[in-house]
Amino acid sequence: MAEGLGPNLRVRRWLVIALPLLVAVLIAVTLILHLSSSGSDNSDKWPNFGNPTCSNCAKFASMSSFQLFLGGVPASIPSHLSYVEADLFDISKAQINRLKTLASQGTVIGCYIDAGTYESWRPDAKSYPPSLLGKGDIGWIGERWVDIADPNATIAQILEKRVKLCKERGFQAVDFDNVDGYQNNTGFKISPTQQLSFNTFLANLAHHYGLLVALKNDLDQIKQLAPKFDFAVEESCIQYQACQNQQNLADGESKFTATKAIFDVEYQDPSATVCRVAKNSNVTVNFTRLQLSTVEVSCQSVLQDSMPAPQ
Which residue range is the domain that position 172 belongs to? Predict the structure, then answer.
């Protein structure tokens, strides 16, 4: 009888022991390389700016007048407006100066920033880690949802740089768009709690830089977010009956609209019926087109035009 194991048996035994270990090492190395190349830098929490109230921020009352010029600031802007908004990037120096003139006359000027989706044409688009880009935002070419389920330092840095630029250009408020990913088909699993965490980070970030902050299209969470946001900018709020839902508008013991403005753009022809509903809901409505580059028709002018002529 031969002593010990034959050479072939010893090799097979070594392979049985070593092969699983080798596979595990290769998987670990692959994961490390993937995370490094994708720019993943998750942390437990979004950056903490405290909970600043922005007591020195500009103010305007509920039911104030407004205009959104996201497709470009026109040469002539009504001077009586309480709030005017323009895109942070798609704006010339002359247009910025035009807005600053309005600000000197008492109008609050706000910048539009897309926080929840990636836009391929923006100057900082290459800063987004590819692994955090999800499905396209339906109807908007070049836009993809961003994964905000877990805090990410790179996304936080991109947004802070944008808010800082907003402040440097003389804006007094910021409107963060697409902050309702948990209600959309993003390609990621974003929970309501994760959305609240992200939106709270945005509000505190804006206040840290001395800017008012608007809540955009997330009325389902307005009860929790109302103390942190200064006003709201909505789209088709009356058409889809979101603004009429007083349960959504509850802010503790009072209603959000009792002290804070809700600006709503309706993408339809001017309607006196819509305006009456808006007035009863304490919501300021303008009628416009998706381009948001022309002067919008306000409910104030619609209701005035619908009044019977004096006898």
Answer: 45-306
- H/E stretch holding 265 reads strand 262-266
Judged by average pLDDT, the poorest of 17-26, 168-177, 194-203, 222-231 is: 17-26
Count of domains forming the chain: 2
Could you tell me if 1 and 79 lie in one domain? no
Average pLDDT on 5-34 reads: 47
Neighbours of 177 (CB within 10 A): 20
Which range has highest mean pLDDT (17-26, 30-39, 262-271)?
A: 262-271
Full DSSP string of 120-182: TTSTTGGGS-GGGEEEE-TT-TTEEEE--SS-BHHHHHHHHHHHHHHHHTT--EEEEE---GG
- Rounded Cα distance, 63 and 255, in Å: 13
For residues 17 and 110, membership in a common domain is answered with no
302 and 174 in a single domain? The answer is yes
Same domain assignment for residues 73 and 206: yes
Alpha-carbon span 68 to 84, nearest angstrom? 6
Band of residue 258 on the pLDDT scale cut at 50, 70, 90: low
Res 284: pLDDT: 92
311 inside domain: no
**Are 250 and 301 contained in the same domain?**
yes
Summarize the confidence of residues 162-174 as an average pLDDT: 97
**Mean pLDDT score across all residues of the chain:** 82
In this structure, what is the dihedral angle of CA atoms 100, 102, 105, 109, given to the nearest 10 degrees?
-80
Q: Are residues 147 and 255 in the same domain?
A: yes
CA-CA distance, 204 to 220, in Å (whole number)? Answer: 20
